[in-house]
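Entry
Fold in token form

___
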Amino acid sequence: MTNHFIKPLQSLPGIQRDGTSFDSNNYIDGQWCRFYRGRPKKIGGYRLLDGGNIEIIRTLYGVPQQGSIDCYLGRPSTISTLNITNNGVAGGAEIDHTPDGFVDSPNNLWNFDIYTVLGEESLTTYILAQAIPNLLDINNSTPSLIYGLNINQGSVADSPFILLDLTEEYGLSSGGFIVLPPFIFVYGNGGVIGWVQNIDVWPTLKNAVIANTKIVAAAQMDGGTPSLLFWSLNQVIRVVFVGGTTQFSAIPLRGTTSIIAQKSVVRYNSLYYWVGQDQFYVTNGERIAVLPNTLNKNYFFSQLNRTYANKIVGVLNSLWSEIWWFWPKGNATENTDVLIYNYEFNIWYDSVLGRASAIPASTLPYPLMSDTNTIPNPYLIVDGVATPTYGLWMHEYGLDQSQYNQQLAIPSYFTTNIQTLFSDNPQLDNQMRIFGVEADFVQTGNMTATVNSQVYANTAITESTAYTFGASPQSFQLAKTDMNEMGREVSFTFASNTQGGNYESGKILLKYGVGQQNQ
């Protein structure tokens, strides 16, 4: 009679942080790991596109050009552009466009949008910009001026933004602005929106009260009648073009809601996702629904540093059907982690990664993200020392962290749910003897397998030796990792931490038997 058994070692996709590990059927830990086809897979690498400077980039905005994009970088005290080719190469140094007389603030968050004017003979395209000191307070009531730069559908010249004729006396722009061609909307205090049809006639600004609290975010809706969505602190309102002297009609969406960060709104097709005060939400522009999250909702909201919650920023990663939300965890004052929702498979996972702003892949095939941490910049030497600067990264590129001619391994791992003998046979309260695992990976570079064992759910975890298995299993022996471990409650951690390392899990098999009687 055989002294061992074999079964697939597979957990449900997603990483469960809420509840107890022992109670989970999902994976219970992971870093830099996503789930594709229900299986763990290492997230792609990232390359430093530009070293930046000593000031953090709070907002990114891309304007397509022929064969490149002009990426607008909004820092607390400046606006600049960096031209990036469609191959992901920076096409020179940053160009400064900071308006004359601009008042900087460490709490500035920038808004950008494109506005095009149809003239008698040609189109004139402007990029509009606004810095609002809302970083630490989404309900801040300070209105902010709007600036414009004529870019004429071409490469941006070395010239500053100029102030548009929208003065602070309107008091409407403490939330932001958005373009719905041919209209420009401003919004903010008191649930008021205002709009004009020409950037030269701000004094004719029309306005309407559409909410009972400050409006903090807005987005265009797709197709059909021109319309916008506006987020107040406790409502979502759809504003629809109706023409005539009224021009627009406001329709509050049904459903209770909140919003915790104005840049947490992420659009995918005709759906809009965002982070509320204690829930995640989604709307199709008709109804608001709570986005279910039984894996890490409490983990997120209980560990979020709410003093800095308006620094949360969301971005679409459409290649992998993901929405990424960067957030400040624990005592952190900047974003340190990323919470990931996979809308194709309706699962959640997370990782450690600090990013302050991001734009999705569009003209560029890769997402761009700005750092919340500095790294020494060898091209900015002061007194013989490389100055730490906040860089701009191109994500989902390669497999490593690539910076200044260095290729650094990105550690990635996942941990299965807990295995026991008594879950299949309640009378068999023995330790599980682990003879080995048969690895099944699409893999580059060595990986390790570690056995994590404990006697009871709340007792200390004992980690085994890290067993190494290679990348090219040409025979059964190379694919099999022999072990001699034992534990009553057992999980397994598979890790990659080599330069150029990569993996996608298949059907891993566990070879096990009955160990000694539990005491």
About this structure: Residues 297-303 form the longest helix (7 residues). Confidence is low (pLDDT under 50) at residues 473-478. The CA atoms of residues 27 and 417 lie 5 Å apart. The chain is about 0% helix and 50% strand.
